[in-house]
Amino acid sequence: MHKRSIRLVAIFLCFFAGIPLSYAGDGPVSDTTAKDTSSIKPGFLKKITLSGVFQARYTVSLTKDVDVNGTHQADAEKEVVRNSFSIKRARLQVKAQVSDRFQAGVLVNFADFASDPKGKVLENAFITYRWNDAINFTVGQFRPSFGLEDLYPVDIIQSMDFSNQYYAFGNNGWQSFQVGVSMFGSLRKNASLPIKYALSVVNGNNRNQVSDDDNGKLGSARLEFGDMNKLSLGLNGGIGAVKRYSVYALGVDFSGVIPLAEKFDLQLQSEFKQGTNHRLFYGLADSLRKGPLSDYLMHGVYLLPNFRYKINYHKLTSIEVSMRYEYFNEDFRHSGNARRTYIPMVSLAFLKDYGGRIQLGMQIDNYDRDIPGTKTHSSNLMIVQVQCRI
Predict the structure, then answer these.
(1) CA 212, CA 177: separation in Å to the nearest integer?
(2) Cα separation, 331 vs 275, whole angstroms
(3) Are strands 339-350 and 102-109 parallel, antiparallel or unpaired?
(4) Contacts 24+ apart (CB under 8 A), 366-372
(5) Considering Cα of 172, then 176, then 178, then 180, what sign does the dihedral take?
(6) Beta bridge partners of 349
(7) In whole angstroms, how large is the CA radius of gyration of the chain?
């Protein structure tokens, strides 16, 4: 299977040479909204941008014997913490525009120090090279584009957090923060039907690792047709090798904005993914595995409608109401325990690009089978979240 990894890299490099050079595209997606803070030594370091986000929460569990983290407490003698204040994110990002072609970026989340910081804290650490609008390269630790949720930071989503499938596919190396190399750009930026692409090859063993944990790599590709602010369709696919065995993932996503009135619109997002759950397979003892790795498959789908009313009252810019429904099954070929999640939310947005935000929502989880003493248990959480971006 080592030859498969070599072929993936070869195909990736061959694609580099085949992309036309005369099209236009976008730069890398930032995980925060940045503002210029200084300019140093023109001609060598053009500018430095500093940005960040702070999210604080108050969470209440409305389910008996389930704590604020969604974990069922089977010990009847133990006091269950059912309400708590917490810091969800405290991010700081620095980007340096070294020249008209080179950019470097670092993103850290200081809220990870609240728990075991091993393998956490550092989220982005990359260098981007821009050849032209159609060809851009990123190397380091970044979020490879493998779905709709990879295209924007968590602090501007129309829900309380990313989907369950995002974290599951991230744990398996396809999404979230990974170490590797990517090429991306836009092939028809100014056309009636814009086309964007992204190709990535990553280690697939998640962030802040000294090296890969095997000789396999994960290669993925994304094609996006249209404009996310109007109507867009994304196609995602990937293959790779984990511990000498083949794995795959695929997905399709849809997003669009439907104007309903002068200041009232509907934002729609939906996504389906399916792939090999090798983290689940290798996390089981040999005696508990049922068949080969290829039989351990996960899939999921979510639908997120968001009604937004634009308003200009002092610093208040919009009032939004959303309701995300998600179905996810981490092992549907066997006795998978399907999870259905409902997240209704009301949001007040202040300033531009959610510079300030107050969110009130619920996270309602229903499992086919509850497992006492674990997070795999039906629960109802009420969340109040306050957000500030710089």
Answers:
(1) 14
(2) 10
(3) unpaired
(4) 366/339, 366/340, 366/341, 366/342, 367/337, 367/338, 367/339, 367/340, 368/337, 368/338, 369/337, 370/72, 371/72, 371/337, 372/72, 372/74
(5) positive
(6) 318, 357
(7) 22
Q: Which residues pair with 123 in a beta bridge?
A: none
Q: In whole angstroms, give the CA distance from residue 75 to residue 300.
A: 32
Structure token pair of residue 103: 């950019």
Name, in order, each residue with C-beta under 8 angstroms of 161's C-beta and a sequence gap of 6 or more: 154
Sign of CA dihedral 162, 180, 24, 354: positive
Residue written as token pair 């990894």 = 5
Residue 131: partners with Cβ closer than 8 Å, 6 or more residues away = 21, 101, 137
Beta-carbon contacts of residue 119 (< 8 Å; ≥ 6 apart): 206, 207, 208, 209
User: What is the CA angle 177-239-3, rounded to 5?
Assistant: 110
Q: Token pair for residue 348?
A: 């007040």
Give me the pLDDT at residue 14, please. Answer: 40
- At 258, list the tokens: 């439907």
Please state the rounded mean pLDDT for residues 213-234.
94
Report residue 35 as tokens.
Answer: 């503002």
Q: Write out pLDDT tens, residues 136-176.
A: 999 999 999 999 999 988 889 999 999 999 999 999 999 99
d(CA 299, CA 130): 35
Q: What is the pTM of this model?
A: 0.86
Residue 209, CB half-sphere, CA atoms under 13 Å: how many?
16
Q: Check if the beta carbon of residue 247 is closer than 8 Å to that of residue 293.
A: yes
Give me 78's structure tokens: 């133990």
- H-helix segments, the chain: 2-18, 164-171, 278-283
* pLDDT tier for residue 74 given thresholds of 50, 70 and 90: confident
Write down all domains in the chain, each with its CATH number in brackets.
45-389 (2.40.160.10)
Max distance between CA atoms of the chain, in angstroms, equals 68
For residues 231 and 267, give the distance between their C-alpha atoms in angstroms, rounded to a whole number.
10
